[in-house]
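Appendix C reproduces, verbatim, an entry submitted by the partner laboratory led by Prof. M.T., so that reviewers can inspect both the input and the predicted structure.
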Amino acid sequence: MKMVKTEAIMNKKKRALFSVELLIGPWRKVVPGHICKMLIAEALSEGVCHKKPLHEIMGYLITSRRVFIVMDIPDKNIHELFRDFYERIRKKIKPYLHSHKEHYDTAKTDKEMVLFEKHELRNNYLIRLLCGKKVALKYYDPNLERLKNMLQKQEYCSMVDYSGAIGPVIMHCRSCEHVKDENQHQH
């Protein structure tokens, strides 16, 4: 799938961001919903905290069926990013698939299993809200209000991070430094 750049104003400069919607594959039926979301959040965080991070996450939403991600990533790293992310997910879900052999062919835990179906994320309101930006219209839009309310209720959403709390996904490499420092003080 060709990834299309999303132009979004993140600060005073325009930055080219990549936004994608991932429809979670059939493995989500075997892995319990809250664990599925947690595994995806861990895999995303590990990609940001990698020795040589391939991206920074500007916004995310993880639901029981879909993952929406807005990230700052160089063009050349897109395929590498998804390959690494998929590999981390494969490793994380493998124990669940093996414990449910009667429902799922464990041979598919390798390269042939469809982990996600990728789609371009085109909802500009959603992209802006996930990136912590306001959407101000001169008129009342009930769909926009429903979207804002829905996002505020989500556990696995970057709106938590932008509201000042600490969300489940590490979004920036700078956040990793804080985690590494805490771990060093504990030992």
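The chain is about 40% helix and 20% strand. Additional entries are available on request from the coordinating office.
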